[in-house]
Amino acid sequence: EAKIADIKTSDAKLFLIKMQSDGKGYSTVKSVRGVLRPAFQMAVDDDILNKNPFEFQLAGVVVNDSHTRTAITREQMRQFLKFVHDDNCYCKYYEVVYILFHTGMRISEFCGLTLKDIDLKNRIVNIDHQLQRTSDMQYVIESTKTNAGTRTLPITEEVAKCFQAIIEDREPQQREKMIDGYAGFLFYDKNNNPLVRCIGNIV
What we know:
Structural class: mainly alpha
Mean pLDDT: 86
Strand content: 5-15%
Low-confidence stretches: 198-203
Order of helices and strands: HHHHHEEEEEHH
Shape: elongated
Number of helices: 7
Helix content: 25-40%
Distance between the termini: 56 Å
Strand order of the largest sheet: 1-2-5
Radius of gyration: 25 Å
Number of strands: 5
């Protein structure tokens, strides 16, 4: 064990190097350093340390062995959409898949959309909530995951046409299900509950 005042930059680097050599992934090492750096900065601010020992470029100390997720190509997207469009079973979900591809909405955000959120005239969609189902099967409305997630999303003419087709095909409800003040969801299951995690439920 060592006192905070005795820890040098070389100690900090060796600590992170040992973490990786002991089998910890780059993302874990980065997270640990992300916690330690501001903690030691507090010691600097309180004049316990003259220099933050964790204030260095991580890339020059440990190897970045993490794998970056690769988005599908436009051609792959086109092929997948064509498959959905031409398939006898999945063709009825073509508009849903097209919208998700071309807006980047999370599935929970899409499932939470109501008729009031979709402005076809001005081609915008309001996204300020998402629909979730808890482990005890309760339906709840939650805010978007981040402040940046709350947004007014402009949509293309093609996406607007997909929304129009969904709305026109929407089964009229004798009594709209109300969840936390929201009603008029786009899709319902056989029990008159809004669908959650659409791809898992309707595709």
